[in-house]
Amino acid sequence: MTKRTKTLNFCSLFFVLYSLNRIFASSNQFNHIHINQNNKTMKLSKLWVLAATLICGATLFTACSKDDDKSNQVDNLPEKIIGKWINVVDDGYDTPTNQKMVLTFLSSTKAQFSLSAFSPATSGWVPHQDCNVTFKGNKATVTTQAFGMLFTCEYTIHSISDKEMDVDYTQNYSLNGQVLREIHGVEHFLRMDVDYTQEILGTWEGRSTGAETSEFDDGEDHRWEYLADGTFRYYHKVNGQWQLSNDEYANYFVDGHLLCTRWKNVGEGMEEHREWWEIESLKNGVMKWKALRMREDGSTYIATFQMNKVQ
Length: 311
What we know:
The chain has 311 residues and is mostly beta strands. The protein contains three helices and 18 strands.
């Protein structure tokens, strides 16, 4: 698998913005997250770079971008770009599933993005964030407001087809008209042709199927009940009987085939945890997941999971 030594993706700047806001003023706009310690089949994924490091001026998120004069003109871009896109390569590195986001162009003026980002320093839970978008030539500029700041990402589209898109991007955030930080990068997107938001509803039972999986995996089946309100219920067996986990909260969202979950056990000192999966297939009552995970040394592996619908 590809060894990755730095993290570069769409969500990096947005959560630097979040961390700065934590310093400027307390905010609960993005809720904290949850993971059940009894959930033996889930693996806690960590972001590589803490937002605090970024605030101190580290340059890990900096990348070279192509010159605008090398860009190819894209005809009818506002029409061609409509749909859901997921980033799969960032600055030449395969993007781990926990660093992926879904960018949806709804029209020539509106867009959304979804992501779940989590590190010891900061966290963000952003399902279907509304954005404005403008087009000029082969450029698409996406803007949204958060924490009293303006987040802007300008994409220069070099190529786009029915299945994939290659872009350079320039991201910045500003407060009262002053740009606080700007980063550049290169991304490769794939178009998402499915959305499993409705199909995932119900109760599913399954376990990890990969050779390498979560350190908490116990090799047993577990159950997840996904509800339409964006919450889920987790069950594990105790003395042969299914028992509902006592969670303070348990949330999920699906955007396209990206599934993000967060949960936290009831009790003092319990930590919030998250999980990220890509739904590989869902048909005939069988749901298969996969995820590109990153080890501590920066190397990567594929985790897999299979579930059967029970009701």
